[in-house]
Every structure is written in structure tokens, then in C-alpha cells.
Amino acid sequence: MLRKKKIISNKILKIIYQHDYTKRTIISLYKYFKIHNPIILLDFIKIELKKYDVLGRIYIATEGINVQISTPDIYMKNVIYFFKNLNIHLKNICINYSIVNRSMAFWKLQIKIRKQLVANNIHDIPILTDSFKNYLNAFQVNKCFFDKNTIFVDIRNHYEYEIGHFHRSLEIPSNTFREQLDKLPIFLRLYQNKKIVLYCTGGIRCEKAAALLKKYKFKNIYQIYGGILSYINQTKTYNLPMYFKGKLFVFDSRMAERITNDVVSICKNCQNITDSMHINCLNNVCHRLFIQCEKCSRKLKSYCSKRCLNFS
Predict the structure, then answer these.
(1) Where a domain ends, among 244, 273, 293?
(2) What is the DSSP letter of 273?
(3) What is residue 42's three-state secondary structure?
(4) pLDDT digits (tens, 9 = 90+) for 276-303
(5) What angle do CA 203, 267, 299 make, to 5 degrees?
(6) Which listed residue, 104, 190, 240, 271, has the most CB atoms within 10 A of its CB?
């Protein structure tokens, strides 16, 4: 008779790892390349990473791989070696390191098969990862801020942009990445003759956005190599001026990493500047992710509006 596999709840896992003082580093990487059998790759990765007590999220699709993981420092070289030798396309992959490395961010390892690495409406457009030449390092990025013919475009969600972004960068108001890509060519039409620098957290969204803009005959398209994470680490390594202001939104239990002391976020209710973290509206029907100052939070009891408060 087969025994049922015991499943430990996320709550218990969180408690276990909160009392685990293993020194860890959070890394992320991605690559667009053809994967013929994602399921076989998933099984292989799962077996290998269990040896190194890796936690985090890995998404695999026929178009590539997206990795966000927390690795014990003693196994860091092993894990990086594993991914760089997993496929010939990953040999020279860019590894992004978290700004705050010791924070516990994940409680288990999840590896999932997806139709796309980042849900969007781009199909049958070649991604330019291997042929795209207009990548900028931190030195080049900083020079661009003094060029009147250059604009910076944020390829992230609104809730990411509202807590931190590059100085004077443009936001494309949208609720999803799909919606953002639909608006992108029209939104940038007025800037078609300018140098357009795209950026996101690690670079994965910019690859799709750059491919789309190339389809619409935009010529002067650039990306920050490795995204915001790589830019910040380079500015620290080489003691460069920092033009990213505020916090960096991260998709794990930490929610955000403070990059500078600048406060750019605004309370949804009173419109005053606040350094509060994102919360979800307590009305489960709404469950909106938003920013609310302490005063409004007390007044509305952590609901996003009077309507949601009264509805509850």
C-alpha cells in the first residue's frame, strides 16, 4: 500500500526557515532560448538543486527560463556552475545579486512550467537576447542622464514604479504587462527619434519590449544590462552616482529593498508622501495592492476606501 506523502504547510516552513541562520544570497537570472521539453528540464533541475538546499521560484517555458532563488553561501559557486552548464545558451548568463543578501525571502523551492516566462501578448516575434547589441552598463547609463535626446522608460507595473524609479523616467500607466505592451508603441511614438533606454528589475521584460519596438521600426532602443539590480550593484562596486531613487519592489516575502533614502511613494487616500509599505485591502472582494500612510490606515482600518470599509 502506498503511503501518502506528507506536505509541510507554508506557515510551518516559514517558521522553520526563520530560525535557520544559514547565510544565504538571493540571486536571479533569466534567458530566452528554445527548450524542447520543459518537463524533463524541470525534473533534472529539481533533483540537482535539492542537493544544495535552494529555495525560491523557477519558471520554465518553451521560450526559456526565469530563476529567482535563495542559495546557502557555501553552495553558491556550485549553484552558479550548475546553471551556467545547464545549457550552452546559459554559458555567459548574467547573474543578478540581491541588494540585501541576508534577508530570508523564500520558504520552499517551486519549479513550474508556464506558457510564457512573463505573461504577455507577444507571439512569433524573435527575442533579441543573443543578437541585441545595445546593452548599457552603469557607466553608460549615468552618461545618458545628461543627454537631452535620451529618455528612460520603466517597463514595470505601477506598484513597482510608485515606490522607486530612475530620476525623470517615464511610466506607461497599465495594470498588466500585456496592457503595457499594447500601449508601448503608441506611447513612444512622440519619442521615436530619441534614444530610448528601457529598464525593469532584472531585464526580462525589457527583452520582450525591445523585440516589440523593433517590430514597429524603432531604431534607437537600448536596455540596461541586467536591469536595475545590475545597475545598483555596479554603482556600489565602482562608487558611481546613483540615479535610481527610492525602494526596489521585489517579488518575494520582503516586498521591497531600500536603495536610497528618497521617498517617492504617495498615500492613495490623502495623496501625501509616505514611506509605508504596500498592503492589500482587507476587503477580500477588492484585495487591492496599494500604499496607505499610517494616519489613513488607522482611519480606514487598512481598507483602501470608505466604500470597501462599509462593504465589509
Answers:
(1) 244
(2) B
(3) helix
(4) 999 999 999 999 999 999 999 999 999 9
(5) 140
(6) 104
Please count the helices (runs of H) and the strands (runs of E) in the chain.
10, 15
Average of per-residue pLDDT values in the chain: 89
- Compute the distance between CA of residue 67 and CA of residue 251 in angstroms, rounded to an integer: 12
Q: Report pTM.
A: 0.89
Q: Give the C-alpha distances (Å, rounded to integers) separating 170 from 153, 173, 196, 259.
A: 5, 9, 10, 19
- Residue 184 near residue 209 (C-beta atoms within 8 A): yes
Contacts of 310 (CB under 8 A, 6+ apart): none
Q: Hey, which residues are catalytic here?
A: 200
Residue 312 identity (one-letter amino acid): S
| 269 and 262 Cβ atoms separated by less than 8 Å | no
How far is it, in rounded angstroms, from Cα 288 to Cα 45?
Answer: 35
- Residue 239 pLDDT level (bands cut at 50, 70, 90): very high
Tell me the C-alpha distance between 306 and 286, whole Å: 12
Which structural domain range is residue 219 located in?
135-244
Q: How far apart, in whole angstroms, are the C-alpha atoms of residue 52 and residue 92?
A: 22
Three cell numbers written together for 2: 502506498
Whole-number Å distance between alpha carbons of 29 and 262: 28
Question: Does 29 share its domain with 101?
Answer: yes
Domain check: are 229 and 281 in the same one?
no
CATH number at residue 101: 3.30.70.100
Does pLDDT of 149 surpass 70?
yes
Element (H, E) at 18: helix 10-18
Total number of domains constituting the chain: 3
pLDDT (tens digit per residue) in 44-93? 999 999 999 999 999 999 999 999 999 999 999 999 999 999 999 999 99
Q: Which long-range contacts (CB under 8 A, 24 or more apart) does 76-82 make?
A: 76/25, 76/27, 78/52, 79/27, 79/49, 79/52, 79/54, 80/27, 82/48, 82/49
The three-state (H, E, C) secondary structure of 197-226, written as one string: EEECCCCHHHHHHHHHHHHCCCCCEEEECC
